[in-house]
Design brief:
Helix content is 31%, strand content 18%. With 292 residues, it is of the alpha/beta class. It starts with 23 loop residues before the first strand and ends with a helix. It catalyses: agmatine + H2O = urea + putrescine.
């Protein structure tokens, strides 16, 4: 995929026109080929861009405006429908290019499997990488119905790649008993149900380290984010998720990339979820992308 080509679709509000001059790159990963319940997250990136026009450009939380950060919207990666292996190869290749240009990658999914190739690319550049994962689900399966390429497997895959003690999951409230047992045995950090307070305890331990943050929108309670493929009752509020993003921004860790996944507009009749996702991305940009 070539950069600085005209992108015919909508772009995220205040997107900078030049890839070369930008500090960060926003990109979509429109894939939902492996979901186990409801498809539709492949339409998430486009709709998040469309509703971003309604955002205020100023963040009261961070006292920062979008014009203070140069970010380039590269559009959606043109993934081949129904081909997960080729899709994840294309995503990894794309992120390799972004990192080679010394840009901050900010991805929008798509199902959660799309985070796996991104984290692979991040690990190649940052061998001491740590992962912060916010989600309703463990995503620690080896396979789903015999298929290892599944949206229920990306965190297990990255644990095996970088070591489970370097992976920190928050807000988890759903998973197989065997997944929780495995995490306990290998020393992976899982904080059930809550995000903000356990996150605050972990952040000092990650000070100075490069960290990739992956957020599944279903970490939010369905009352706050109904537009997702696998809703799960008992989640956190949008206010807590925003506070968690800000806690990371004010910590001493070095966020080197991030994504927000599993937004499915088809189940989002009020557009509550896409508007929340758009605001979350604004805060991720303003909180985590630093000026060069």
């Amino acid at each position: 995929m070539k950069f600085d080509e005209a992108y015919s679709g909508n772009v995220f509000i205040k997107s900078h026109p030049s890839f070369e001059e930008s500090e960060a790159v926003i990109y979509g990963m429109p894939m939902d080929w492996t979901v186990s319940y409801r498809p539709g997250s492949r339409f998430g990136p486009a709709r998040i861009r469309e509703v971003s026009i309604g955002l205020e450009e100023y963040s009261l939380y961070l006292d920062r405006e979008l014009e203070e950060v140069k970010y380039y919207d590269a559009g959606d990666i043109p993934l081949p429908f129904g081909n997960p292996q080729k899709s994840i190869e294309m995503i990894e290749e794309f992120v390799d290019q972004v990192l080679a240009a010394d840009k901050f990658p900010l991805g929008m999914g798509g199902e959660h499997l799309v985070s796996w190739p991104v984290m692979k690319a991040m690990y190649k550049k940052y061998p001491d990488l740590a992962i912060i994962h916010m989600d309703a689900h463990t995503d620690l399966r080896d396979h789903y119905e015999g298929e290892p390429l599944s949206h229920s497997t990306p965190i297990k895959k990255v644990c095996e790649l970088i070591g489970p003690t370097n992976v920190y999951s928050f807000g988890i409230r759903s998973g197989m008993k065997e997944e929780f047992q495995w995490a306990k045995e290998v020393g992976m950090h899982i904080s059930p149900f809550e995000v903000l307070e356990p996150l605050k305890e972990v952040l000092p331990k990650l000070a100075g380290r490069p960290v990739y943050v992956t957020i599944d929108i279903d970490v939010l309670d369905p009352a706050h984010a109904p537009g997702t493929g696998t809703v799960d009752a008992g989640g956190i509020t949008s206010r807590e998720l925003l506070a968690s993003i800000h806690a990371i921004a004010k910590s001493d860790i070095k966020v080197v990339g991030c994504d927000l996944v599993e937004v499915a507009p088809i189940y989002d009749n009020s557009e509550q979820t896409v508007n929340t996702a758009s605001k979350l991305i604004r805060e991720m940009i303003l909180g985590w992308v630093q000026k060069k």
